[in-house]
Design a protein that fits this description.
Length: 295
């Protein structure tokens, strides 16, 4: 009774806990977001993708290379780390996997040849986090460099698309990493870089305090939409208050997810969605690709 009289005014707002990937998942497709983060058990995914195996193998090799003692950070060591840690999921056959292992080894060795082994990063696969009065966001940075007094966020890319400064400028993920790194380490962090290993190109953007704040406000807006949909989902799954059934009777409870809050956004990317077979709109929008189609 007292709680009803006092109400909930003045109570702190519940923070939306997220990663940049979770926010981007909501933007890309609310239905995929629901299947990824809310449905339990989560719907079975399709087969693994070869391009993810390439990306993970390259990232793991570069992280392991930086963890070697400085004298052991050689071009040959980078290639050996890639070969030893090669992931084979998603390829058409052993021959295709071996071909791409050779390509990936070449790109890693070519990239490492341009690095100074003595230029120690401030962090490799470094987790950073920050919060506002609306969100608590965290993520893992591929590499965090210290250049003079400032920090630089470095993100490795292995896809086909050659990146530009517009990609770096528009990346919500990199902006949030920069904000979090600056707050955790108490040093300025405005520069973000996308290192495209297949081409050797580096896409760079120098943020301002204002541009970083715009990204943060955008993240809060996305989080507010997702949090509202999350709450609707939980409410839909809550069993209604019904009288206890008499012996021999059953009470039907609808546990169907509140799908209106999670509409699909069908398009070309549906071909690569892990949950495409559970989404009629996605199947209609784009044919399913072979697991090795994007390498």
């Amino acid at each position: 009774m007292v709680a009803e009289q006092l109400g909930l005014e003045g109570m702190p707002q519940r923070l939306y806990t997220c990663t940049p990937s979770r926010l981007n998942n909501w933007l890309d497709c609310p239905r995929r977001y629901r299947m990824t983060y809310l449905d339990r058990p989560s719907p079975p995914k399709g087969p693994p993708w070869a391009h993810n195996s390439v990306g993970s193998s390259v990232h793991n090799a570069l992280a392991a290379w930086w963890r070697l003692p400085e004298p052991e950070r050689t071009v040959e060591a980078a290639g050996s780390l890639l070969a030893r840690g090669w992931l084979t999921d998603g390829f058409r056959d052993d021959a295709q996997s071996a071909e791409w292992r050779g390509r990936a080894r070449e790109m890693v060795e070519r990239y490492v040849a341009r690095l100074d082994p003595a230029d120690e990063p401030l962090g490799v696969e470094r987790t950073v986090a920050t919060r506002t009065d609306r969100i608590a966001v965290s993520g893992r940075i591929d590499r965090l460099d210290a250049r003079g007094e400032e920090l630089v966020v470095v993100d490795y890319k292995t896809g086909r698309h050659v990146l530009t400064s517009d990609d770096a400028r528009g990346s919500l993920q990199l902006a949030l990493y920069a904000l979090a790194a600056a707050r955790v380490l108490r040093r300025p962090c405005r520069r973000v870089e996308l290192h495209h290993l297949p081409s050797g190109e580096v896409a760079v953007w120098e943020h301002t305090d204002e541009s970083l704040q715009r990204h943060l406000r955008r993240a809060e807006q996305i989080a507010a939409e997702a949090a509202e949909a999350d709450a609707a989902y939980r409410e839909r799954l809550r069993p209604p208050a019904v009288p206890r059934p008499r012996p021999g009777e059953g009470a039907a409870v609808d546990h169907t997810p509140y799908d209106e809050a999670f509409p699909p956004r069908p398009g070309g990317l549906c071909s690569y969605c892990d949950f495409a077979r559970h989404c009629p709109e996605g199947l209609e929008a784009a044919p399913r690709k072979d697991p090795w189609a994007a390498v």
